[in-house]
Write a structure and sequence with these properties.
The chain is mainly alpha-helical. About 75% of the residues lie in helices and about 0% in strands. Helix 4 packs across helix 6. It is elongated. The mean pLDDT is about 95.
Length: about 200
């Protein structure tokens, strides 16, 4: 009988190593901040060498960018998961906003995406990440609502940027202890006022 080959491919090993580094870095960046976390600590937390870290990421900032990109991707996936095709475009926008606030309640997310992210990666870096993920879902929802006549036709990019900023501010306030329901109601009224 031939022994089954259980060796992992290089690609699988690479993916596993990257995932371990990203998970360890996320945990430390949330716990100690970007500035307070060193690469030796990240490598040790991942059970890897610094050489392995630098083989996969050019530097700590590149690893941080991977962490932030993964977090932003998770937020967008949660928004899309909550999307119900049976909803009207206006209701879908409101529910998407609620899903965003719920997704941002995950421990550490506001710090990673709204505080340290812009500070470390710059506004342009965060805009690029947001454009691929959360802001993309908002932009698509706004465009669909405009096409359906549910909201006024306005310049899409500025509208997306301004509404995203309002949702980001709400997420920060809620994390700091503000009344989440009050923010949800106010944001829904803002979206409805676009009609």
């Amino acid at each position: 009988m031939q022994e089954r080959n259980t060796r992992r491919s290089n690609r699988e090993r690479t993916q596993e190593t990257r995932a371990r580094l990203i998970a360890a870095a996320r945990r430390l960046f949330v716990e100690k901040s970007y500035a307070g976390t060193g690469t030796p600590e990240i490598a040790a937390a991942a059970g890897l060498t610094r050489g392995a870290l630098y083989h996969h990421f050019a530097d700590k900032q590149a690893l941080f960018q991977a962490v932030v990109d993964e977090e932003a991707e998770r937020v967008a996936a949660e928004i899309e998961r909550q999307a119900d095709t049976a909803l009207t475009p206006l209701d879908a926008l409101i529910e998407g906003g609620n899903a965003f606030l719920q997704a941002m309640a995950a421990p550490g997310r506001t710090r990673l995406l709204l505080l340290d992210g812009p500070a470390v990666l710059g506004r342009a870096g965060m805009d690029a990440i947001d454009g691929r993920h959360g802001n993309r879902t908002l932009r698509e929802g706004l465009a669909a609502a405009m096409r359906a006549g549910a909201i006024r036709r306005l310049p899409l990019d500025p509208l997306t940027a301004l509404l995203a900023a309002a949702y980001d501010r709400a997420a920060l306030a809620i994390e700091a202890g503000a009344d989440a329901q009050a923010f949800r109601l106010t944001l829904a009224a803002m979206v409805e006022s676009l009609g």
